[in-house]
Design brief:
The chain is built from 6 helices and 8 strands; from the N terminus they run H-E-E-H-H-H-E-E-E-H-E-H-E-E. The chain is of the alpha+beta class.
Amino acid sequence: MQFFKSYFSHLPTLETERLILRPLRMRDAEDLFAYAKDPEVSKHVLWETHRSIWDSRMFLRAAIRQYRQGQPGSFAITLKQSGRMIGTIGFMWINIEYKSGEVGYSLSRDYWNRGIMTEALREVLRFGFEELELNRIEAQHETSNPASGKVMEHAGMRFEGVLRQRIKNKGCYVDVALYAILRGDPRE
Ligand SMILES: CC(C)(COP(=O)(O)OP(=O)(O)OC[C@H]1O[C@@H](n2cnc3c(N)ncnc32)[C@H](O)[C@@H]1OP(=O)(O)O)[C@@H](O)C(=O)NCCC(=O)NCCS
């Protein structure tokens, strides 16, 4: 328990070819609002479209509170080239007993289809296995959001099935596809 708490209360900064993954901070509010106000981005995630920068500030405040409490949380995805914060990726939950967890993510529409989330997910899976010492990492996407399934596949996660009406999103029950990768599985 203390092991995970100390990781999430001092989330490290991770680096990939094009990205820096670092803890969220209040100064990200403008960059976050720039994409979180887009209903196409929020359509398949569990947060509501941000109506004003206050929503983005509330979101960041909640994320920072989670860090303080040592709870699983998200990294800001930032572009090395511009320093701009363009999305988030992180752990939704961790099961300490089973050494498992679930990853979730979202990205500004301006940057879709350039392999950015695949690059970020590969690094977060590496972090989960090598640093958090997890055994199984899951991710799920609404079946109406196949691009997210492609990201999971590209990062080496395997499709395990469809969970019918598993969640209620924006007032409707939706089917989700479950993916997972085990510590011993090949990573792409
Ligand atoms: C889903 C999302 C994370 C993808 O991020 P991304 O950086 O664009 O992903 P990548 O570029 O790494 O890979 C996307 C893949 O999906 C494919 N794709 C895009 N639109 C697609 C569609 N409608 N149907 C099927 N595949 C699609 C792309 O061609 C690409 O695959 P390829 O490399 O084999 O060609 C991004 O669109 C997003 O943040 N959406 C809004 C929030 C969200 O849905 N979050 C996930 C919740 S589970």
